[in-house]
Amino acid sequence: xxxxxxLRGPADWWRDAVVYQVYPRSFADANGxxxxxLRGIISKVPYLSELGVDAIWISPFYPSALADGGYDVxxxxxxxxxxxxxxxxxxxxDALHSRGMRIFIDVVPNHSSDRHVWFQxxxxxxxxxxxxxxxxxxxxxxxxxxxxxxxxxxxxxxxxWTRVEDGQWYLHLxxxxxxxxxxxxxxxxxxxxxxxxxxxxxxVDGYRIDVAHAxxxxxxxxxxxxxxxxxxxxxxxxxxxxxxRDEVHNIYATxxxxxxxxxxxxxxxxxxxxxxxxxPAYASTKGLGQAFNFDLLIAPWDATEFQSIIDYNxxxxxxxxxxxxxxxxxxxxxxxxxxxxxxxxxxxxxxxxSGGVNPMxxxxxxxxxxxxxxxxxxxxxxSTYLYQGEELGLPEPIVPDEHIQDPQWIRxxxxxxxxxxxxxxxxxxxxxxxxxxxxxxxxxxxPDWFANYAASVQDADPDSSLNFYRRAxxxxxxxxxxxxxxxxxxxxxxxxxxxxxxxxSVTNFTAASYSLPVGEVVLATGAVTDGAIGPNTTVWLQTx
Length: 544
Ligand code: NOJ
Ligand code: CA
Description:
Blueprint: E1 18-22, H1 38-43, H2 45-51, E2 55-58, H3 86-98, E3 102-107, H4 117-125, E4 137-138, E5 153-154, E6 157-159, E7 161-163, E8 169-171, H5 186-201, E9 206-209, H6 248-259, E10 267-270, H7 279-283, E11 289-291, H8 303-320, E12 325-327, H9 336-339, H10 348-353, H11 363-378, E13 383-387, H12 407-411, H13 455-459, H14 465-478, E14 486-488, E15 494-498, E16 503-508, E17 514-515, E18 520-524, E19 528-529, E20 532-533, E21 537-542
Helix pairs in contact: 5-6, 11-14
Calcium ion binds at residues 29-31, 33, 35, 37.
């Protein structure tokens, strides 16, 4: 048995919030240009409210050339005109708040876009200028500086250095359109504080911080070289040259001062792909307050693995005074219905290269496991981040090569999978040019089978995925529990735990049936026959 207890207060709403991630260009298109927009999101606020989420997180909506789906930001305090206006943003905030929902926005502090006014100024001002100091410019090697400064690769494949007209090179850990900021520069630090005040003043409740572990780098000579971004090769003592350096937390302490000037204090969640033992520093109450735990994104469908991940993360969150985050899908990974439909250990890049057919996903198994996983995490303490479309049980579509937008696929010449599949615009209706996404063809093509998953079809079907999510969220909300779980004895392949008020969750990871403990079944993701839970199923029971 393990015990996890947290303190609760009015400013603690985020601790067990269910946060729904909106990828704005692919959610709902109101004006018919094929790109989702703020008006579209506003029109779906009643849907989100009925779904029962506590908050939404919107991926970047800033002006951007979309070299990396908007994670290349031209201006941190404006909205892309294709997505909307600041007035519409205010309207969205009001619409959410008036229905008791909160809003997180995505802040991208590691890099701007190459169209940002500071980068343009740096290019114009030339080598040695003060303007270049806001980014990371270096001279090249070789007689004429023609060899890149180091052999560092970028996240999306080739080199992390690009040469500018006058011969200097700049660092970009992602695409060449995403130059990395120099966080030693006081103006960079001050400008982000200004950004947080700007949005917090507009009523934004929280922030998702992109690549939160990369801001501080040791760029002294010899310059860092790296040919892998695997967290397993990252140093886990704060001395890695590029990632997770201890000094990054000094930055977050200054952000925290700004967050705490608001009532309730603004909150933040770090996207930090760091070794698990390094997460608490990001989740500290002196820093961002919460950090994504991505462990389940990479875990196989296995009871022992799930149980040890859950135990580890609850213990870690309690120790840091935070609460943990459960995530099984987001805009960077294969939708979890399809992930769980593939055999364990499949190389997702290889699978993508096969056109998504080798191996062929077993979608019936994937859908069952996906629902079971969602019910399992919703029964846990901590907050849950859902990704748009998962409530529809959407599998991953394969976007034809000629339509791919993702720089990961493009820059790696198709070696790495495209992340566009999970970003295909949602089907709201079973018919029409975009399945109800908007009045025109969408910016990424939808497969014909999207018709079967349309929200309006599911709305009318009590057994649909959508109605399962609604039910699960409603029940979760009705629970008054402490943040404790008690593991219950169960045979191998079955995981069972109980919350303080008797709410019990049992997940059967196996292909066999298992007799449930005594109690009233309040939710079942699959068949319960003669008191036994079937394969790949989660059941919630109310026990004495
Ligand atoms: C993480 C984001 O989730 C991903 O979509 C993006 O490509 C990188 N950060 C770079 O900003
Ligand atoms: Ca639009």
